[in-house]
């Protein structure tokens, strides 16, 4: 990243995370009702209210900025700066009272993710990183860990179900070469790459708001975040991501995904 995100935007991203956290906390393990969206994924009042709270702050402070939110849609998509919001990434975990869901707040400039926040309200963990701002974890600098290659790497993916057909075959090739595989991390797992405790996350069938915030957090911590072809991630990516803490692991993962 050659540019530097203005400090006021970094501070404001933290304000958005505070607002979402304040909404989400009272609903955790409260037995709230759940609805199914058109794609059968679950949504709750906590998702909707947390995003609404963030959108209200953006409209008041930066009315010329765009907003792309999972629950309330897109406004001003062609703005120079667009906030990309996923109020509860990992709603299924949230619904069973498992504190591995996160709030994802991304900021893109001309389609390029330049700032990201990953916030876990229950454990009170927050990662912030972006262009010109090395990633921090609860205010302290954090870096990805070195790893010599797939044979020594730890991999996480959200679910087996996202890998079907050719995607399933590609993922199986990576899995066969990896040291350790776990499932169920959602965005929290990617943040663990920035913490240095996980090496690789591979996903498929994601939406822009699922990964926009993660790209700057990983890159500003020393890692690599691309699609399965090694191309930069943006609003038009196909939803298949490969994020790693070490470039060697990332390179070998892309080779395995491609069948090499």
Estimate percent helicity.
Answer: 25-40%
Shape, per Cα inertia axes: globular
How does the helix and strand content classify structurally?
alpha+beta
Beta-strand residue percentage:
25-35%
Q: How many strands, what sense, and barrel or not for the largest sheet?
A: 8 strands, mixed
Number of strands: 15
Report how far the terminal alpha carbons are from each other.
Answer: 29 Å
Using the CA coordinates, give the radius of gyration.
Answer: 17 Å
CATH fold call of the largest domain: Fructose-1,6-Bisphosphatase, Chain A, domain 1
Number of structurally distinct domains: 2
Give the strand line-up of the largest sheet: 4-3-5-6-7-8-9-10
Unreliably modeled segments: none
The CATH architecture designation of the largest domain is 2-Layer Sandwich
Give the overall average pLDDT. Answer: 94
CATH class of the largest domain: Alpha Beta
- Could you give the order of the helices and strands? HEEHEEEHEEEEEEHEHEHHEEH
């Amino acid at each position: 990243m050659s540019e530097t995100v203005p400090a006021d935007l970094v501070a404001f991203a933290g304000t958005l995370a505070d607002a979402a956290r304040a909404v989400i906390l009272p609903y955790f393990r409260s037995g709230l009702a759940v609805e199914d969206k058109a794609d059968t994924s679950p949504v709750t009042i906590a998702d909707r209210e947390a995003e609404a709270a963030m959108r209200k702050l953006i409209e008041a402070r930066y009315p010329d900025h765009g907003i792309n939110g999972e629950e309330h849609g897109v406004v001003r998509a062609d703005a120079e700066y667009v906030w990309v919001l996923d109020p509860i990434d990992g709603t299924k975990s949230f619904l069973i009272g498992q504190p591995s869901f996160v709030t994802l707040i991304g900021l893109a400039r001309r389609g390029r993710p330049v700032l990201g926040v990953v916030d876990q309200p229950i454990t009170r963990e927050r990662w912030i990183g972006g262009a010109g701002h090395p990633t921090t974890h609860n205010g302290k600098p954090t870096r990805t860990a070195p790893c010599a290659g797939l044979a020594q790497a730890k991999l996480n993916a959200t679910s087996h179900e996202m890998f079907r057909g050719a995607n399933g075959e590609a993922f199986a090739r990576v899995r066969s070469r990896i040291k350790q595989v776990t499932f169920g991390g959602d965005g929290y797992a990617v943040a663990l790459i920035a913490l240095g405790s996980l090496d690789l996350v591979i996903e498929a069938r994601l939406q822009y708001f699922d990964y926009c915030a993660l790209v700057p957090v990983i890159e500003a911590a020393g890692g690599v975040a691309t699609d399965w072809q090694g191309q930069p991630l943006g609003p038009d990516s196909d939803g298949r991501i490969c994020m790693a803490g070490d470039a060697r692991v990332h390179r070998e993962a892309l080779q395995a995904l491609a069948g090499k």
